[in-house]
Amino acid sequence: MAARQEETENPGAGRPTRTRPAAPAARTGLPALQRDAGNDAVTGWLHNPGPAAGPAVLGSAGIAALQRGAGNAAVNAVVQRSTGPTGDTPTVQRMYSGRSTRDSTRQQRNRDRTDPSGRTRSSRQQGATRHDLSWARRQPVPTRGENNERLWDGTRDRLSFWPQTTQNVLGRAYTRNARNGHQLFRCANCRQEVHQRAVADQLGLDNWVEIDHRTAILDYVNSNADGDTWAHDLGHGWYRQVSAITHDEAQALYNAESNLRAYCQHCNGGARAAASTSRHFDRVGANWMGDPFQDEGSEDEG
Predict the structure, then answer these.
(1) Distance between CA 123 and CA 131 in Å, rounded?
(2) For 71-83, how does the pLDDT look when each residue is reduced to its tens digit (9 = 90+)?
(3) What is the pLDDT at residue 11?
(4) Of 159, 260, 276, 157, whose CA–CA distance to 211 is shortest?
(5) pLDDT higher than 80, residue 66
(6) Which end of the chain is less packed: N or C, by CB atoms within 10 Å?
């Protein structure tokens, strides 16, 4: 009687209690995932959590739905499953940039022929810059002759007396030996007898013998040299006529004894040296003659 009354007041008393397992947390948002990815994809993901699961089973739509419904944590779990036991990450494919290799090659070629100012020049412009008449006019005069001989640069500094020349000219001007035993030489202008420079320095004298050119030396060389004229090869099919005097010919004229005489330093220096016409010819070496030209029948090497 008492047991029946307890059962009436407390239904189910004495019966075994049924326990229901809690829904897994990972299934949060599964309805949305089922709608987007389909039941088969969801079932495959739940029952196959190995390397084959994940993006390959759910697809991009399933992953997006899982992210909206279950959150980023669930998505990370799916990606971690898909990497497999070796931890290899999925391969990232290269995106198409929209620029072709042909365009890139053309741009690089333009950069290669950009001048220092930053302006890009076409092939035609480059060829004109290298090989036109203006380029040919800017080329310097040569320092070697047609047969590679040394050319005179037009200055007095490169010329000098040969020892034999000095001996011959002073030999003609010698008069006698002084009482000190040193030689005396007569100036062809004032007729004064003087010593050589080294002896005058020892004796403290301010006058000595020198060798003088009757006609100013540079004027004499430029007026009497035969010179050489040839078509100098400028390169790239361009030529230019050049006239020059070889150094050997200038040196020979500098030592021409017919243009030499013995003068004392007083007569050879001062106002006479300042008025020398050689001052107007100094530094006249090789000279261009006319404009550059191209040899008929020759092709530009450019």
Answers:
(1) 12
(2) 777 666 666 655 5
(3) 57
(4) 260
(5) no
(6) N
| Sequence spans of domains, the chain | 29-86, 145-294
- Adjacent-strand bridge partners of 244: 228
Determine the Cα–Cα distance for residues 58 and 56; give it in Å rounded to an integer.
6
Other beta carbons within 10 Å of 136? 19
Backbone angles phi, psi at 231, to 5 degrees: -85, 105
Crossing angle of helices 247-254 and 217-224, rounded to 10°: 120
Q: Which residues neighbour 28 within 8 Å (Cβ) at sequence distance 6 or greater?
A: 69, 70, 71, 74
238 vs 133: CA distance, rounded Å:
9
Give the per-residue SS3 of 148-189.
Answer: CCEECCCCHHHCCCCHHHHHHHHHHHEEEECCCCCEEEECCC
- Report the alpha-carbon distance of residue 247 to residue 273 in Å, rounded: 24
Two structure tokens written together for 61: 């739509």
**pLDDT tens string 143-172:** 999 999 999 999 999 899 999 999 999 999
Extended strands (E) in 155-297: 174-177, 183-186, 193-194, 209-213, 228-235, 238-244, 260-264, 287-294
Per the confidence metrics, is the pTM higher than 0.70? no
Nearest C-alpha neighbor of 210 from the set 169, 248, 245, 238: 169
Residue 56 tokens read as 């390959």
Cα separation, 99 vs 73, in Å, equals 38
Model confidence over 173-232: pLDDT tens digits?
999 999 999 999 999 999 999 999 999 999 999 999 999 999 999 999 999 999 999 999
CB 85, CB 51: distance < 8 Å: yes
| Rounded distance between C-alpha atoms, residue 159 and residue 225, angstroms | 14
